[in-house]
Amino acid sequence: MAGSRRVVVTGVGVISPLAIGAKENWKALTEGRCGISEITRFDTTDFTVKIAGEVKGFVPETFMDKKIIKQMDLFIQYAVAAAKMAIEDSGLKIDASNAERVGTLVGAGLGGLHEIETTHKEYLRKGPRRISPFFIPRLIANLAPGQISIIFGAKGPNACTVTACTTGTHSIGDAARIIEHGDADAMIAGGTESTITPLCVGGFAAMKALSRRNDAPSRASRPFDLNRDGFVVGEGAGILILEEVEFAKKRGAKIYAELVGYGMSADAYHITSPAPEGEGAQRCMKAALTDAKLNPNDVDYINAHGTSTEFNDTNETLAVKKVFGDHAYKLLMSSTKSMTGHLLGAAGGVEAVYSVMSIDQNILPPTINYETPDPTCDLNYIPNHAIEKKINTVMSNSFGFGGTNGTLIFKRYAS
After folding, report:
1. Which of 45, 130, 214, 352 is the most exposed place for a label (fewest CB within 10 A)?
2. In the annotation, is 342 catalytic?
3. Which member of 34, 160, 165, 377 is catalytic?
4. pLDDT tens-digit series, residues 22-35
5. Structural domains of the chain ordered from first start
């Protein structure tokens, strides 16, 4: 990050369709497992899309007091749980001595859609007296960082980013800049989402954005493959603990990686389609490289946005080739959405966790279901099997509806 205050990652917490917990996610990810299956949250009889990346086995009481669970929609529960895991992983103790210097910036793309749908049904059946007093607090997106700050006592900057599928990436980048500018010494940052609901699945299906490979859920998300037919909705949360480097070193924290670059841009083109040749994505990646003071050749691996849609994968590939030139064919690139599905507002947070773990563990996750090469997608997407490789620099891309783009660059920490 530009400026004198360096920002490092000291803790990670993740919930995804693959597993609950960073170690469990990493094992599943590097083994090339898929977390996509038939939808169980609602009756899909009348739906053209019957598959999603649901989180399995989540028990909220494991992570929070039973009394407060009823105050939260599932997306908030995921955020609190992932934050708890990240805080514990970092060893950060939030107390009276530092609480005002620890902030929270966690976003959600759609917020409490499940709460809205179920409460509206109850209202139609039994009228306004049956609306819960927790209805509004359960659905507002900023109650994810709000509940985290209340539960863990973080009294520093508190905010919520809502930028569609770029939410998690923007949240982490914006949180890093808060530290860089001296407004906090540590930030709990990332994205969360839980919208596997009739309206969400039905809405994306109406746009023809989703895969209809209902007979083979684990093979439905296939980024960069010629036979891809759309993305798969997923859910979960990904949280990083970001700290100013001296603050982290003083308490002897483990450092996963340094966050050295952050870029943002707008396509200013279309509400859902990416700009031709990923023009906005190009500017976003270039901005992150400039912020990091790195040359394109310095990047070893890209955790791609890679949604498994026709236009995204082609345009992201073109953008990478424009930005990296000949180096595009030397660097490694993969889409972990092939295994998790697209976690919408949580995607950037979860993929940031995977990015720093790639540096820490010296393993690069694969793009599974890559069977038939697409001539328009001709880079090395780490097909089907993880690669053991020591790398120093990782780029993580997120691109959202409305033409909003975000890129993070993480680097192996060196004092």
Report:
1. 45
2. yes
3. 165
4. 999 999 999 999 99
5. 8-400 (3.40.47.10)
